[in-house]
Write a structure and sequence with these properties.
177 residues, alpha+beta, 7 helices, 27% strand
Length: 177
């Protein structure tokens, strides 16, 4: 499973996948998480959106920003019908690989503090919490910032540690808010 960069023609599918993947969080939070309301056209134009396909169907999407000293996962989303099949782990592994290829020392993300399952899964995947802060776009929401060092050489996307592979069914579908 190797992600490919998204193109302008993928925008409707990206929006649809993001809405369906984040639907449980929209219900939990009472409003759509930021990735659901995001305008992905500029991100696609900048080459930040990567798609994972299963045959001809879109299975997952990763939005990965490159910064001077880190990469930032803005969103990782897996279509509900593909959750539990390792696509989420593949996208996280790809984010790490891309971060290494860019020569950056860590990958960061943020998630909503109410998404406790996400926080636990990211911790199990090797991220550590670096702080909490108010969400600047949603009054009353708190964001949990997390980071993971990615030292070493880039590894193939499908080459996961056994413990991470065991988590595939749990991680699929998680998405930062």
């Amino acid at each position: 499973m190797t992600p490919r960069r998204a193109f302008d023609g993928d925008l409707p599918a990206i929006v649809s996948l993001t809405q369906s993947a984040y639907a449980p969080y929209t219900a939990l939070l009472g409003a759509p998480p930021i990735p659901v309301t995001e305008d992905y056209a500029p991100r696609v134009a900048r080459g930040e959106v990567w798609l994972l396909e299963d045959g001809t169907q879109l299975a997952g999407a990763l939005t990965l920003e490159r910064h001077d000293d880190h990469a930032l996962i803005f969103s990782v989303a897996v279509a509900p019908q593909f959750q539990g099949n390792g696509f989420g782990v593949a996208l996280l592994n790809f984010a790490e690989q891309q971060t290494r290829l860019w020569g950056l020392p860590e990958v960061r993300l943020y998630t909503n503090a109410r998404m406790e399952r996400n926080i636990a899964l990211y911790l199990a995947y090797g991220f550590h919490e670096t702080g909490r802060r108010p969400n600047p776009y949603r009054q009353g929401w708190v964001l949990v910032d997390m980071a993971k060092p990615v030292g070493g050489m880039a590894k193939p996307v499908g080459d996961m540690a056994e413990s991470v592979g065991d988590m595939a069914k749990l991680i699929d579908g998680i998405a930062p808010a």
